[in-house]
Design goal:
CATH architecture: 3-Layer(aba) Sandwich
Number of helices: 7
Distance between the termini: 6 Å
Order of helices and strands: EHEHEHHEHEHEHEE
CATH class: Alpha Beta
Radius of gyration: 16 Å
Number of domains: 1
Largest sheet: 8 strands, mixed
Number of strands: 8
Shape: globular
Strand order of the largest sheet: 1-8-7-2-6-5-3-4
């Protein structure tokens, strides 16, 4: 049976490892949910990572404005990683992404929380195929993963031709899906 809950309540109630898909329309609302997820982790003594293809300096400033203390960055309790975009065949993208994932995971202490989607461009069949393969690998070995993972997907950025199929596959490779259509709206779908 599935139950829909409010996104912030869900984020605030997390007390066990979960692989979460954040599916959104509004990037600012998504950012609030991502930052709340990390701030809650810091409050619990967990290490936190935000990995993105965006400018890491602007992400640090946004996290500070959100209320993440500067000493969390200085003590490396929270780290921001830049993931350079890559294109090419699915295999080339996968190779690049595995190296990036290893770089991120080699420097983080358990338990941890990570916000990241390792393939920055999922608007192509090669990109979304590589991302689906990475999601499958992570989900299949999640018990040994060592922390929580939130994978953000802007709806409009997913390859259009087979979007519904991609989304259904992504849904099946996560423990919960947070859907944020607009600020103040949305829900969480998770199996109970």
């Amino acid at each position: 049976m599935q139950r829909t809950v409010i996104p912030i309540e869900f984020i605030d109630s997390l007390d066990e490892k979960k692989h979460i898909m954040l599916y959104y329309d509004d990037p600012e609302y998504a950012r609030l949910v991502e930052f709340r997820f990390l701030k809650n982790g810091l409050a619990r003594g967990e290490s936190c990572v935000y990995a993105t293809d965006e400018d890491s300096g602007s992400i640090v400033l946004s996290l500070l404005r959100y209320g993440i203390p500067l000493d969390s960055f200085l003590s490396k309790k929270i780290q921001v990683f830049y993931i350079p975009p890559v294109s090419g065949t699915t295999e080339e993208i996968l190779s690049h992404c595995k190296k990036q994932a290893h770089r991120i995971l080699s420097d983080v202490k358990k338990p941890f929380r990570i916000v990241s989607r390792i393939v920055s461009d999922v608007s192509t069949e090669q990109g979304i195929s590589a991302e689906l393969e990475m999601e499958k690998c992570i989900h299949d070995c999640f018990e040994d993963f060592g922390g929580m993972l939130m994978c953000p997907y802007r709806i409009s950025s997913i390859e259009k031709k087979n979007r519904l199929e991609w989304i259904q596959t992504l849904y099946s490779r996560h423990h919960a899906v947070i859907y944020l259509p607009e600020i103040g709206e949305g829900g969480v779908i998770c199996p109970f």
